[in-house]
Amino acid sequence: MDSIWSAIRLMKPNCYMASIDLKNAYYSVPIHPEHQKYLKFNWKGKQYRFVCFPNGLAICPRKFTKLLKPVYSQLRKNGHISVVFIDDSWLTSDTYAACVDNIRDTVTLLSETITFLGFLLNSLLMQISLTADKAQKVKQMCQELLANPRPSIRDVARALGTFTASLPGVMYGQLHYRWLEIDKTDALKLNKGNLDKLMTLSPDAIHDLNWWYTSIPSAHNPISHGETQVCITTDASLTAWGCSLDDVNADENWTPIQAEHHINYLEMLAVFFALKLFSSQISGKHVKVLIDNTTAVAGINQLAAHIPGIENITADRESRILTLWHALLAYPKVVAFASSSDANPPSTQQARPVALPFIGALLSERGISSQASVIIQHSWRTGTKKQYATHLNRWRQYCGARGIDPISASVENGINFLSELYTQELSYSAINTARSALSTIILVPGGTTFGNHPLVTRFVKGVFVSRPALPRYTELWDISLMFNYLRTLHPVEELNLKELTLKTVMLLAILSGQRFIWTLHDLSITSMERQENKYIFYVNQLLKTSKPGKHWGRQEFTAYPSDPRLCIVSCLNQYLKKTESIRKNSVQLLLSYQKPHHSVSCDTFARCLKSVMKEAGLNIDIYSAHSTRAASTSAAKAMNIPIQTIINAAAWTNEQTFQKFYCKPIASSSTFGENLVMAFSKTYI
Fold first, then answer.
1. What GO biological process terms are annotated to this protein in UniProt (predicted)?
2. 319 pLDDT band (50/70/90 cuts)?
3. Taking the model in full, what pTM does it have?
4. Which CATH superfamily is domain 479-662 in?
5. Considering the domain 4-111 in this protein, what is its CATH number?
6. Mean local confidence (pLDDT), 552-580
7. Domain 230-338, CATH number (from 3.50.50.60, 3.30.420.10, 3.40.640.10, 3.40.50.300)
8. Domain covering 357-466: architecture
9. Measured in Å, how far apart are the chain's first and last C-alpha atoms?
10. Among 2, 256, 306, 614, which lies 20 to 30 A Cα-Cα from 349?
11. Measured between alpha carbons, how far is residue 275 from residues 143, 230, 258, 272 in Å?
């Protein structure tokens, strides 16, 4: 569908424009009599039904646009330039006479300034701005949010929607709503998606609101299709970045902390550094930036241009040079710029926080080098970092609203923060994770960590008593139900790729006894040994259960000729044969059964497992994909398989882990009452 951007791209200086509004146009599209029964409603005791397109039905705008496609297609073939958005049309031509020829019905007065989709398009000044009504609406929203110290999440979301819809007519608007969006996202997570809960705005979000309030009356956005005056080429690698302007080349190596970022982020950071470096040469000029990374191009709002990597020779070479200054100066700190005229780019810490907020700054204050800081942060696993980062970002918002230094906070501040999480109905487990996260940054005198402080431990015990964390399962599903279902998926040679994939995934999960959603993701055909009646997989990556001196290194799957319907070796043989032609360069064992058959994530594996569980008749609202581990190991114990064999297969350190978290009774389909009646019947009948 066309949009306001379509009209902007077609505007020329001093062009003439007109607009057509097909009012009540929806009412000209009838609904088939047999389908009108789906569009009924009751009002004051009477039942009504729509006989034409109703306003508010999601499919109507696109359907109506498709109806007009042939009409405007013919007009464009005749040389008329137009943009249509549902029932609003925008027409343009270079001259007044040509624009008159473009329209045959009643339209608004032809002019170089026209209103279209809530924006003022001015071909004399070549700019777009908001209408007075729309600008006043934005200003009023900002005023209401600034006057309310605790607005609802819904009000903030509504304001964000209005800001986003106004962006075409507000220069730099995209730079001044992200903090508000971050606050809204954090508040939704804290309140489990409840939009009616109240939230607190951070100082950064309040600053953005003030910007919109003061800037919106005069806001506009230039429309420029002119020739570029300056062309900058940039590129980045994982070791350095480089740029080129005319005959001037520059390069710089990333610091260890910067090098931890994703390559897409580094590509955009290279553009930022290049613009700062050449600011004196490009000030006031129309600049084109050539990048060989399409994600970075999209991230700069399509104001850059894509250049194939094979053509990006100069910047690519500069991004991979390790200079003599790099060897002599190691990793010099980049001084943050103080004004727009200062050519020194800001440090990465100001542009984006590290994976664990505050950790880098805290270690730096204690005299730890940046390189040692990176190594220390590797001590936390990726999953732990994600959990901690969520609570540390909440901690940042909490401290910002109260003027507390997050790094130098007291134990009392931390306990009050945990108390606020409690009032927001977070579980004991979530609050305990938040306690561990705060232990990484709040230093307690005497060498005690925040989490082990007597007041903190007493508080967490109080949370457990008032909001106990009970086991997720009191009993587990019967594994025989799963085996009975898997037996129906036979013979494997006649299964389609989806059925074969799902059966293979479930058999691997049950027969391994492993934390399989994560382990399965790491199984590779390059680390696989195929024997006559078994498969051996070697895992060379760090797993969740890996620790110094202990690593689960291999998994064997043996054939089961007694029942070919449950033989994992037969499934793997057929699966590898069926995926050989679609595997391409992927070495991951299991691929997506949907085109284009790429490698899949852990979440996809979990969905596969739950899909099979549902087909087997299990209640997936109760049991998660990870329950396969507890179900298989509990069944093994019930069949008197040696405990040590179970522990070794599941990579547990000792029996206590199994008994405490995984060993559960198997659910029975018959109750006490049913068994009693059956026994009584056998006795007296």
1. DNA integration; DNA recombination
2. very low
3. 0.43
4. Intergrase catalytic core (1.10.443.10)
5. 3.30.70.270
6. 84
7. 3.30.420.10
8. Orthogonal Bundle (1.10)
9. 75
10. 306
11. 35, 11, 18, 5
